[in-house]
Amino acid sequence: MDMKSSVSRGLVLKRLAAIPFVALGVGATLSAAQAAAPPDNKKQFKYQDKPGKNGQKCSGCRFFKKPNGCTIVHGKISPNGWCIAWAK
User: Fold this and answer.
1) Nearest by Cα to 79 from 35, 56, 37, 33
2) Residue 34 and residue 15: Cα distance in Å, rounded?
3) What are the extents of the domains in the chain?
4) Is 82 exposed, middle or buried (0-12, 13-18, 19+ CB in 10 A)?
5) For 23-40, what is the mean pLDDT?
6) What share of the chain is helix, strand, coil (3-state, %, to 5)?
């Protein structure tokens, strides 16, 4: 008597068909994790904790979100800070 177990073609096809769905699930999980913690972009926008030229401050910018946020620069920012995306 042969002790080898046989695998049916149907079982193999079912397992192969499941691979794309597993990949989609892993991709969705990574996307959610990445969205939860956006990369720091302060360097990209040359953010500084002090006012910019002509006394421009984050608190006077249209992208500023009280008390210490911004719609463009990620993370905590100072209301007295400045970056190159500043707009009245």
Assistant:
1) 56
2) 29
3) 8-37, 39-88
4) buried
5) 63
6) 40, 5, 55
Q: Two tokens at 86?
A: 């500043």
Q: Which fold has domain 39-88?
A: High-Potential Iron-Sulfur Protein; Chain A (4.10.490)
Please list the alpha-helical segments (H only) found in the chain: 9-36
Task: Of 72, 11, 67, give the one whose Cα is nearest residue 47.
Answer: 72
Q: Answer yes or no: is pLDDT of 10 > 90.
A: no
Q: Which letter, b or e, does each residue of 41-78 get, where b requires 16 or more Cβ atoms within 10 Å of its Cβ?
A: ebeebebbeebbeeebbbeebeebeeeeebebbbeebe
* pLDDT digit string, tens, across residues 58-81: 999 999 999 999 999 999 999 999
Predicted local distance difference test score (pLDDT) of residue 36: 61
Determine how many CB atoms are found less than 10 A away from the CB of residue 25: 10
Contact between residue 14 and residue 48 where contact means Cβ atoms under 8 Å apart = no
Q: Residue 39: what pLDDT?
A: 83
